[in-house]
Design a protein that fits this description.
Protein name: Dynein regulatory complex subunit 7
Largest sheet: 16 strands, antiparallel
Strand order of the largest sheet: 12-13-14-15-16-17-18-19-20-21-22-23-24-25-26-27
Strand content: 15-25%
Radius of gyration: 37 Å
Main location: cytoplasm
Distance between the termini: 71 Å
CATH class of one domain: Alpha Beta
Number of strands: 27
Subcellular location: Cytoplasm, Cytoskeleton, Flagellum axoneme
Family: Belongs to the DRC7 family.
Keywords: Cell projection, Cilium, Coiled coil, Cytoplasm, Cytoskeleton, Differentiation, Flagellum, Spermatogenesis
Oligomer: single chain
Amino acid sequence: MEVLEENEEVEQTAEDLNSLNISDSLQDEETKVPEEEDSVSSDVPGFDWSSIDTSHLPSSYKTNSRQEKKLLHIADHFLQQYTHVCPDRKPLFLHPVNECGVEKFVSTTLRPTLLPYPELYHWSGCASFVSNYLTVEPLKCPISLPSSLYSPTTILKYQRGNCFDFTVLLCSLLIGAGYDAYCVHGYATQEICALDQTQDLCPLLKKPQEVPMMKKSRKYRVKIVAEPQSKFELQQKAKKKEEAEDVQKKEEEEEVVTEVQEKPKRDPLHGLRVHAWVLVLSGKRKVPETFFINPFTGNSHNTTDECFLGIESIWNHRNYWVNMQDCRKGCKDLSFDLSDAIRWEIMLPESNKQLTESSEGDMDDMKENEERDVSFEMPLSWVARINVSCREFENQYSQGKKVILYKQAKLEKWAPYVNGDGLVERLTIYGDPDCTEVVEVTEWFKNREDMLDMRETNKQTQLTTDYFKPGHPLLLKAHTYTSLEPETGHTMEFYHKARADDLRKRVETTTEMTEYFVGRDDFLHIRHVEFGEREDGMGMAGTRPDLQLRPIVQIKECFHRNPEKPADEDVEERIFMIEDDSIQLTYHLEDHDTIASKVAFFRAIQRDRKGEEIFLTRDTCVKYQPWSSEKHKNVLHLYKLLWELRKDQKELKHQVRESEAEVLNVLKVREDEEANIKLTVSMYNAAKREGQHEAMVGS
């Protein structure tokens, strides 16, 4: 081992202790610091670990085997050498007592386990389960190691623990899932140790990073001549730019002032707070890069994250390593090559012989070049197999609910079936730092029979958007509204591939309705309808649509280009003016055309005495077809075209009425679904089905 110079750390520690007016004795400091820490975790109900029943625990919890005793002896000898070579370093976390008061080496407390749940096969699922299932308990003294380390089975039973308990359980699950994971004993910031995320942005609000598109460089480029510009316009643009920069500077200064005001005070124990977390090395399970996992939150962090201030030691179920690198700059410069004996001192070398070299001045009482046999393998874990039942895995929150406070946001989580409406998660966004003004609320649901998945509510505009999974009886995908009353403004999105008419979205207001289509054979993609005001005696759409529906003023349809038709025969837009009794057609353009062909029929219906024929005159038909063929100039062709358009107009009016009826039906169904919410139970959910069966038998 090499002696590390830590003068700066010692001086910083002395300054911190003086700032607190604490005596030179760390024992006095340990008695004062917990009072400060209790205020951070005042919401955690008290729990007396000394009152737990250990009589039912296996004998491995209460005694040590011969190998375990030998391991403790080796650990004591290793600690003796460590303290001699590094007298200024803090003590190592080697063999705390377990729940039965028996000393156990930390590596044997790990119990690699792969639980039979697909979510726990990935590191994020394991981290999320541990952070949700357990309740955080702060260390008794934030700058000292805990005196005990309980088994993961006991921690799971009582669903609470400190950072070391969280880390051991998470590391056991990760190793069982095939990751190269290690428990870390080190130091972190107050926010990490106290689970204070009020200055962090909620992960659900973080935007994914955009991958920049790489532009292909061309060897030969056409030089584009710059357009002439007015000097006066350039001067005006420069003035506007300067004014904008001045305004931006003022805003930045105001932001700096607010940040300084909101910035928390300097932590007097910065760099001294003990914390434990998980290290995952790259390689196994195709992990591309080494990273940390904070067991309290379940979030991953880069090894250069400034929240982690230093590492004392790491261990897994096979060995124990002491960090011999300088941590004055945190963990950003650390190397995690554990095979490097200079940077990491290993306790149980992989070779059968270890040559212990000692200096003449420091170790006079030990033999020089002493060889000792270290062909010793780590004993198996003394912890019983980790088991988590289906009921426990589904109800991950010990208190039924979990609340996380972020910067101007609050995240609430529930286990499935706890809420009668299927609510499992709610994110509330506030508009002020004091979290008093609610701006937006987003809710997530599970197991809803109506397939409701998410609901977004804007509290400022009172606009609500419901999102549905595939499988809704009306094929709903999303529904935006302010009220479920008709004609109050609704936007409905559908799973268009499952619909016969390929309708993707419908937007309805009091006076308009617009429908958007995708992939239709007739190339229709937009239908826009304008309604007029109801006359006296005409109410809202209801049971008698012939008397109460809104009068249709205009129907407009837009079509995509049909490549199988000539452009002068392919209609791009057609407008039916119902009240004016006129029809307007606009055709597509060819690539070389600049003006579209148009045809308009004004009051085209003129009947004879029998009321059967349609007459076309120069006053009733106006056409402009500069690129059309002779066929389109024929009056008979226009007559047939008008006849077809009149038929289409009747069909369109019928389709509009069907759309209105469908809107009313959707609103009625959604109102019934919200009034009578039903939750579904998967056939694989044995625990929930047992509860349903017991309820049916009891009734």
